[in-house]
Every structure is written in structure tokens, then in C-alpha cells.
TrEMBL record, chains A, B, C, D, E, F:
Pfam families: Asp_Glu_race (PF01177). It comes from the Bacteria. Belongs to the HyuE racemase family. This is Aspartate/glutamate racemase family protein. InterPro entries: Asp/Glu/hydantoin_racemase, Hydantoin_racemase-like, Iso_Racemase_Enz_sf.
Length: 226, 226, 226, 226, 226, 226
């Protein structure tokens, strides 16, 4: 599908599976530094079929087939699923027919593995905590997982200033009580807070959308290598 | 240290800890697709103090302090240690004082985690196999590790055509007997064979230098994000 | 929803997420011994929206929302999802609003844990093998898992006599080469072969639908206990 | 040994390895819902050779040979060892010559795996906590284990009302501090408190004797299946 | 209990839980190098109540209480249980009231951890293999365990020359097929073959009675340290 | 290399990789009970090239090559590396050419595995805690590891009386909050406090230099066994 000989530049499509405009805009802003003059185009889109916030397993499962269809029909060179549940990641890969599909939880966590001994996740809610435990087990990374701590918020609330203090508190508990030494932000819209939290806790904080798109960028650049 | 406003562009320094020119040249060639017109400069250098091939734990440990000194004295914005033993990765990070340091084993393996359920490593020698088992345990990734299979070669032999058939055989055994479904090339100089092995075995094959430099590229681009 | 005071007896609904009549009939026959004169009613139904065979992750994900709707709308006291991918198990539990939902992979594997040190799974295809590895990791049971071996068949082919020899061969390889000492049949329609395989290999063989329904039976009987 | 054609109905023998009448009576009462008009007979008996309470490893080991003898000499179709140390489970299986033997810790824990991400155990004493850690490791279930919390009581004290508040406190600590989301009662006599604890903590609470006998019921019903 | 000031020298009692004189004599001979002129006395004794060979879990469990009684009644300063099932190790520790009790499987395996990346065990029989898997899981050492391979012999047959070739074959399979790089002899009577196997396979071979007694020696010498 | 027939007695060389005289003297004193009239000679030496305290990964890596040279040039029969980072253990083994090399962290931890279900480590500093987590993962012992707690001291401060209360506090937190039931002292100079801490917390406390030297003693005595 990628067609290096044509005029069309390579393109990375970032899909926010919820339909919150606030979150989509926050993701888009977070990706600025990865947009290079001659690099791949990076587009962020919401999934119209998605709920306002993905807060149950049913919310996550509900977007899988629409996501797969979107990917199958789009000519992008790589895809990023921008929800920390990584909904339908394997099905999306089947639908992408060989083109890279990156999950933000996956890449937020993998990057954290290189920044500390044990990562902790700032989670939206108690329900997310349980899903994250299942996800970390599925990834086979339990030995590096300090835990998740919830801030009890909806996805779209994570963007604003009001939540920053709670995010810092959760990160601090992960460091001090749970033994984390690197933090992953467990929602797609938390990028505006990354640096403030890092400064507050004195340990690396990973924004997962940035990591997944950076990984997609690398994969797109490397695709034609013999 | 990165200074986007100045004239000096960002720079990634890739250090080959062995002193083999053949391997250094092969690494350099493999990184072509990651060199963007306005992107960070990517330089590959050998470590003059390094041995011809790193084939024992002592070889790996011997290069740690020279590597750390090289990193401490260099003004690069990010570093890649281009030897599959990831020698001195933690010490290099201490020496880099906050600038990213990526190991090629680390990133080759992390990328493989996103391409299959269990990764296998094509290793240089039986000795490397033992060291890789220890490394994978240290990373806490044993649950995803199918195993390593040696081709019994020195680092500089991996570049030429002569070894390709043995690399394919090792990869095939990892798939068919050990249950791997993604392969990591366990030496810095194997890039010229990546695509041929992938075609021969029908499963993803990861070249670790490319992955570590792609990760360094992402880290450099994202450093200024608030 | 269960209403012990009414005349209606308790009811367990077994849903075959694929639409194969052959498989549905095989499941129904396998459950005979669990139908007690005054025990809960056990009904087996196919999911009309399901594909003929679930052989990709997309097939599995496609049935999740229809399954969840079916469960939410049905007044049964307990549910069994009769596909070895346990598609949508967590979402089904959310939809069941407290009523038990059992997965056949889950219960086939749990029963096997009590019959040997390491279980092996006779899988439909190479693709199922990969999904089973992911599932076993997600369950956190990797230490007890000897592996999966495929017979390369569709779900509806597993019912007939023609496949028995291949099932026995796969089970034998799991025992002799992979170190399993208990076998789980990795598809809903293999019940007619259970005893023949057990006799051939001399080790316990678990039929997963029977185990999940037995578990549902226990859960239904125990629900009213103070 | 089961003989469906004869007049004798199938029989499940539940053996309480301690000699406490209070505990034996509590177990017997807890099994009421599993006694079906035409189902297998369920008999609960104490082991006369057993101590009043099993509170050391020596107490547990002391009952193994008497248990094995009892099982070898009894014509029951299935057995349940009703002590949360699962004393002599493997030896009992050898003695049962193919008839099912279920341990209550084993089945309490397996059932909990289907009700949450991480189970916690309400333990009798600090000593039991250590034995439970060893047991959970032996089962290979450490990834799902949140921990055990002791109430510091003897087995026969667990039956009465006086202990309920301490059981609830221990369960709550397991949920809130240790990250459990399903609770297993770690002693055979705690059934009278199950529902009260469940209501108090708002998460599933598993009574292990009920689960082991339910599993034995399923195994007995399924034995004749071809 | 140790009383360095008195005339009685410290004493280590090695108990062979089976009653085979051949095995007891082989153990005794293997311990020669650990008998120092002024060091602790090292006595080897068989357990009269023990069976000829411990080849089932029931055999292992049967000796636990006699072992515990023997230990409680003996004034030795440390004990070694010289059967590779480590029968009753925890109960023996309770009975020893603070005096060290060492298991030979435990110490054979711990020593092997320092000699290679993955240990393999030469086992007596297929039944021992299953028990060893359970034991290694209970020790939490599964990540370092390559596997066990049986020679299908009784304990007393392991002493003679006839079995040497089979022991070497089993060790070689553990190295070449299972990926072990250190071997543990899985029975108390195999000491006479240790060096011959080591020479044949070119990797370290551990005799477990020697290791357990060496550990007991260290523990006895260190007991008086403030 | 050991030559039992010659006049020269066997010799164990204990190398303290830091250059602190206080720590070297504390190690020497702790080994008194292992010095037997006719046993191997036990010599403790500091590494002149070592830093005052090993408190970063770079400190640990810096001593590896000097350690390896010292070992290669010395005729001792066995070596002990007396720093809890076990710096260069594998390289030291290569340099020792078959002679045993024991690490104190390794043996302190292995001994603790036989004294409780979960070991905890009293660490020098927060930095050591992170290195210990990596080391325990590399050993594959995470399932038995309760955690590490720092006292925030330099190596040479651990010898004096002033620190005892902080050591006891750290050990107590490991027991009460982290679930340890055996404690390892995480620095070479803490021997003078061992018994006092053990008495204060009522659980076994392991001094790692003593354990490593005891293991070296056993290895030296057993080397000549056929």
C-alpha cells in the first residue's frame, strides 16, 4: 500500500476511538514535535462511532469493528490507536494487512521499560486499573509493573488544568508506595500535564500517544529498507 | 543540551563498541532511511578501545568504561550502543546525564514484542545464547521469549553473503521448533540480511540497530515537548 | 434476575458464537450428563450473527457485541460462551449484570490444572495457537502451559470421525515433546473424541464445554446461599 | 468404580481433616444447595485422627496418610479434602485410583480467578499466610495473587458470629491495600459469613468447600461421557 | 543446642528417608571430603520406616512424620534430608526447633543456579519428573529450569556402573535439547557418577547430598556468630 | 589448580571491591567462624583501584576489569566478590578459569530462600534498591522477593553502632509492610549488626559475606571428589 515512488507523502493515521473533541485536539497538539517538514503526514481523527469516554470493557469492545473497518478502508501507511485500552489491537493488525498498527498503551509501556525498573500507570478510574492489570499480564510484563492508581475522571476531563494536582498525587503514590520509578500516563488526553508531573515527582513521565506515533514514524521510515 | 534555536542540528551518536570497520560500515548503511533532510544528524563511530568482536562477558565488560567516557565527553543529543550485549547500558545512562541512551538488544526485543507473541534471537555463538538468556531475564521478558539459536560466527562475519543461509536456518528453527513468531537479529552487522530472512521464513524480522536509532530519533524529537 | 420462588426452573444458556449447526449439535450432545431431572435447564443456541468458524482475531471480536446484546436481553440465570477463544468474556460479564458467565477456554484450562502439572491444548490452527498463547498469558497461567499444537481444521470439521487420528497425534506430541500431562480440547465441537483420545494417550483429556457448563451448574445452585 | 446401572446412587465424600465438630457441621450446612433430589449423595465426615485445628505444616502433614487410607478404603465416587491447606492432595489422588479428589484451596482459588483480576485470601493466622504463599507458588498462580491477611483465629472459632467483623476487616485490607478484587475464604468453616462479607466489601467472596464440592459434582456427572 | 564449649563436637545428621543400604552407603562415601579433622561430625543414617525407593508422592509423604520424629528426638546440630523429593522439609524445620534442616533437592538446585543460566535434572522416573516440576514451581525457580529427563530406575539402581551411560544420555538431552547448561543429579545415590558425567558432557554436574551437607556445615560453623 | 598433595593449603581470596578499610576489616572479622584449623586459608583484601563506596552502577562497572585481572593473576583456589552489587561476577568467572567465584548478593539471597518464603533486602540507598530489583530479576527470583528498603548510608557507615536502629527499622518495614519473612543484609559491612537485628525482628537475618565464603569453603572441599 505505501507507494514511495508516487508524489503522495507517507501518512500516519492516529485514531482516537472515543468521540471527544477535547481529547482529539489534545492528542493532535501533543504530536507537533513529530511532524517533520518532509516526514510522514500525521493526521488525528476521532471515531464517530465511539462513545464520549471509554470506561468499561464494553466501551472498548464496541469500537473494535468500526476501528477495523476504518483501517481497512484507509490508505494510510501506518495507524495508531489512541486509547489506553488498546482496543482491538490484534484485529486492527489483521485489518491493516501488513501496515504497522501501534497501540498507545503498548508503546507507552515499552518506552517506560527503558526509563526505569518498574513502571506505574496513572489510570482514569478503578475500572481502568483492573483492565490495565489484565493488559499488562497479557503483554507478559508483570515483573516490571508497579501498579496503577486511578484519578477517577472521564477521558475528556484529563485535558484541563483542574486535574493536574490529582495526576501528580497519583504519580507520587505510584513512586512512593508502589515502588514505580517511571510513570506512564494512562489516557490519551493527558499530554499537557506530562512535563509538570515529571518536574513534580522527579522521575520520567511517558505520554503514550507521542510514543506510539514516534514508533509509527520509525516503522514508516524503515519500511522500504532491504 | 539539545538547542533547537541554535544553528547546530540535533545529533544522534551511534557507537559500535567493537572496532570492526566492516560492522561499523554495515550499521551506517542500515540507518540510511532514518536520515531525514532536516532531522537529527546520525553519526556512527567505532570504539577504538573495543575488541574485534565481543564474544565473551569479559569482552562486553571491557568496553563499559570507555563507552561511558565517550558519552560523557560527547555533546550528542542521544546515544545508541550498537552491540547486542547492550554493554554498560545503565552506566552509559548515568554518564549521559539525562540524554537518552538506547541499547540495540533492548529496542530490537521491544519492537519484536509488537510483531508477534514470542520472539526468538539469531545469536552469534553458544556463548551469546547464555548471555541473552540472562539479559532477557533481567528485562523481565521471559514469558515472551522463545529462545536463541547460534550461527557460530564472529561479528564481522555476519555482514557477508556467506552467512545468509545459516541465518535463515537459525531463524527457521526458532520458528518451527521453539515457537517464535518474530525474529530479532542478535548482532549489529546483520542488517543486509534482514529482508532476505523475512522473505524466507514468512515472519517479521527485526534489525536491532534500526530500531534503537528510530527510538533515539523519537526521543530527540520529543525532548522539547512541555 | 434468578427468581427461585417462581415456577420457572433455573436456566443456563450456552451460546455457540459461530453459526455452525454441526458444532451446536455436538455441544448439545456433550452436555447430556449435566442435565438433571430437577436441575437447571441447559439450552444450547448458536449466534445467528456469528461466522461459520472463528479462525481469526477479527472473527472473535466480531461476535462480542452481538453476544453481549443476547446476554443482556435473555433472562437466563447463567451463560456459557462456547467458543475456545472466550470471545468477549469480560464484556459479557458486564452485560450479564451479576449473573455468572463462563468461558469454555477458561474452564477447560482451570479443570486441567487439577489433573496434571502442565496442560497442552489441541488447537484448530496455527493462528489459534498464537491466540491461545496470548490468552494463557492474560490468565497468568504460563507456568503451567506446555503449549498448543494445531490440527489445521475448521470448527465444523472437528466433529466427524475423519479428524480423530490427527487429534490423537497432536495430543501425543503435546505429551511426548512438549511435556504436557493433561490435554485440553481447544474447540467446542471435539467432545465426541474425548474418551478415544484419553484412551490412546493414557492421560486426562478435558472437554471444555462440559467443564464450563458444570461450573455454571455449580454457580447456579450456589447463588441463593446466604 | 461409579456404577450408574446399579441402585446405589453416586456419592461424594467430603473429609474434614481436623476433628472439630463445629467445623464439620458448618461445612455440611454450606453444601445444602448442592444436594439435588436425584444427584449424588454428599456426605461430610471428620477425620478422627485429625487435630482440633490445622495450624502448622506438621498438623497438615500429619493427616496425609490417614486421609489416603480413608480414601483408598472408601467406595465413594469422588472426594473433597475440606481443609484450606489441601493436605496430601497428590497422595490422595494416587490413593483414589482415578476417582476425582478435589482440594478446597485449589477450587476456591480457581473459582476466584473467574471473578476478578487478583484474588486475596482471608487466612486464619500468620503461619497460614506463609503456607498459602508457598501453595500459590506451587500452583503457578502468583501473577493473580494479591496476598493473604490473617485474622489470628483457630479453625473452630471461624464459625461463630464473633469473628465476622475481623473477617470483613481482613477482606477490606486485601481489597484496598493489596489490590485484590475477589476474596477467597481461607478456612473450611467460614461459609456462614460469606454473604455478609460480600455485602460489606462489594466484591465477590468465594467459599471454598462449596466450590470444591460443586467441582466434584460436575466431575461425577461427567464421568460416564464417552 | 550447639555447645562449642563442651567436649561434644558439633554433629550433622544426614537422614536417607529410604531404607536402601546401597544408597545410604553411597551417600556416606560422597561426603568424605566434607569431614574435617576438627569439623562437625557427619553421620549418615537410613530411616528404618522408609520404603526401599521413594517413587510416588505417597512414598514421599509416608516418611514425613517418622522423619519429623527422628529430628525432634535427635540432639544433632543440623540435619540433611537426603532424598531428592525433599520430603517434609517444612515440617522437619518445625520439628528442628531452630536448628538448620537442609534438603538435597533444594541445595542441589541452588548450587546449580550459580553454575549456569538454566539447570536440568536427571530424574529417576517419569513420576519424579512431574514431582520435580511441582517442586521447582513451589521454589519459584521456573525461570531457571530447563527441565527433567528420566532414566527409569529405582533409587538403589543408581549406584552401580550399569546406569552410567543412561545418566550421561539424560544429561546430554537436557543440555542439547532442553537448553540446560548445568545439571543436577536427581537422586541421593548418584554421587559415584558425578565426575564421569561432567567429563562426558563438558558442563558442571551437581551432586545434591554434597551440596546440602556443605550448606549444613556452613550453617553449623556460623551459628555462634554474634 | 588446588594441589592437595603439596604443602600449600587451599586458599579462598575474598575481595572487597571498594577501598574502605573499615569495611574490609568488618568482613574479615565476620569470617572468623569459617576459619578452621586445617581448613582452607581465608584472606580478605581490598581492591586498591576501587572507590570508597560503590553507590552507582558506574562505581560497580568500574571495578570489573581490575577485579578480573586480580583473579586471573592470583593462585587462590576460590574467590568471593564482597560487594552486594556482585560486580562483574560472570567476567570474574571467566577470569577464574574453572575455579569457583562466589558473589555475596547471590549467596546471601540463595541462603535466604531456605529460611523463609519471601526475602527482603536492607539496602544502602534508593539507588541500590533499583539495582537490586534488576539483579533479582536477572537471577529469576522475583517470585520470592518482597522488596528492598534503603537506610541511606555509605558503605563505610554501615559498620558503626550509629546505624543499627535504622537497619532494624528497615528490616521491620520489610517484614511488616512488604511481607518478607527473611532478611538479607545488602552490604558487605553489616555483619556486626546481624544478630541484633535478628533478635529485634524475630526472623532470620542473613549476612551475605559469611554465606558466600561458606559456599566457597564447600566448593573448595568438594573439588577433588571423583
Amino acid at each position: 500500500m505505501p507507494d514511495p515512488g508516487s508524489i503522495r507523502p507517507a501518512r500516519i493515521l492516529v485514531i482516537n476511538p472515543n468521540s471527544s473533541r477535547t481529547v482529539t485536539a489534545a492528542i493532535d497538539a501533543a504530536l507537533g514535535p513529530l511532524r517533520l517538514p518532509v516526514g510522514p503526514d500525521i493526521t488525528v481523527t476521532a471515531l464517530p462511532e465511539g462513545p464520549e469516554s471509554i470506561s468499561s470493557q464494553q466501551d472498548a469492545d464496541r469500537v473494535v469493528m468500526p476501528l477495523a473497518r476504518r483501517i481497512a478502508e484507509d490508505s494510510a501507511d501506518a495507524f495508531v490507536i489512541a486509547c489506553f485500552s488498546d482496543p482491538g489491537l490484534q484485529t486492527a493488525r489483521e485489518a491493516a494487512a501488513g501496515r504497522p498498527v501501534m497501540g498507545i498503551a503498548e508503546w507507552g509501556i515499552l518506552r517506560a521499560l527503558t526509563l526505569g525498573e518498574r513502571f506505574g500507570i496513572v489510570a482514569l478510574s478503578e475500572g481502568s486499573v483492573h483492565r490495565q492489570r489484565r493488559m499488562v499480564r497479557q503483554m507478559g510484563l508483570g515483573e516490571r509493573y508497579a501498579g496503577s492508581r486511578p484519578v477517577e475522571a472521564r477521558a475528556d476531563e484529563t485535558v484541563g488544568e483542574a486535574i493536574r494536582a490529582r495526576l501528580i498525587t497519583a504519580a507520587r503514590i505510584l513512586i512512593e508506595r508502589d515502588g514505580a520509578d517511571a510513570i506512564v500516563l494512562g489516557c490519551a488526553g493527558m499530554a499537557p500535564h506530562r512535563m509538570a508531573i515529571e518536574r513534580a515527582i522527579g522521575r520520567p513521565v511517558v505520554e503514550p500517544c507521542q510514543q506510539a506515533v514516534a514508533a509509527a514514524l520509525g516503522a514508516v521510515l524503515l519500511r522500504e529498507v532491504p
